[in-house]
Amino acid sequence: MKNTLIVMGLFSALGIHAQIGINKDNVSNGSVSLEFGNTENKGIILPYVSDKSGIIENGTLLFDTTDNKVKYLKDTNTWFDLSVDTSGTANLGMQANDRVEQPGAKVSISTGSGGTNTTQGVLVLADDDRAMVLPKVASPHLNIISPSAGMLVYDTVKRQLAVYNGTVWTFWKP
Known about the structure:
Helix content: under 10%
Number of helices: 2
Shape: globular
Number of domains: 1
Largest sheet: 5 strands, mixed
Number of strands: 14
Order of helices and strands: HEEEEEEEEEEEHEEE
């Protein structure tokens, strides 16, 4: 029921062109398309993908179920591994029954594309001058009790990106 309500909410946002704050009253500044509140120890779960051959949009983030790794696309044909884990083991039970591709499923968030954005993806932040702010969690490896494979958060203690691949957390700092 909860998943159905979330999907319905995302689809209802198809025609909305604005900045969005999830679990917060407003976004922090005008350069943000999508921002998550930091009142709970929760993160974003990336889409689980088994065939990424048709994905060509640089900057795409996903959880690749063929090798159980979190990846992002750079240079149109190079997938960069954010997991840095050679075990390749992950519990995919969370989405085991719901992994049917819905080609028409898409939510696009922008301030001015007028619903005409053609970028492929389930959630597309279409502005070219705004960004997404990840959920902020202090020490996610200690405070997120049951993380799911493909989870992303910003670690406010270490001040870096935290990625969970279903087995281990990896941390990225520029």
